[in-house]
Prior knowledge:
This protein is mostly helical. It contains 3 helices and no strands. Keywords: Membrane, Signal, Transmembrane, Transmembrane helix.
Amino acid sequence: MEKKARVICSAVGFLGLLSAVLGFAAEAKRETASDACKYDGSTPAWGLGLAAALTLMVAQIIISITGCFCCRRHSYLSNSNRRLAIICFVISW
């Protein structure tokens, strides 16, 4: 893999991992049923969930803007691997 692809994969991988961590943190901070009656909007779950969604969206935008480097035609990729990469890319959106 070329250096640019490694940097992009690392950045997107980090953002995906950060999104997962923020999502799990939001789930841990959510309100319980007993707290619903006295809701005052101070729970951090909404903010954590929003941050998780935004980091995931940024990762998707980075992949979309830079292009799917694994989907470009290279001599070492078979058609079936290329097709699978394109299908995974489309499903990810």
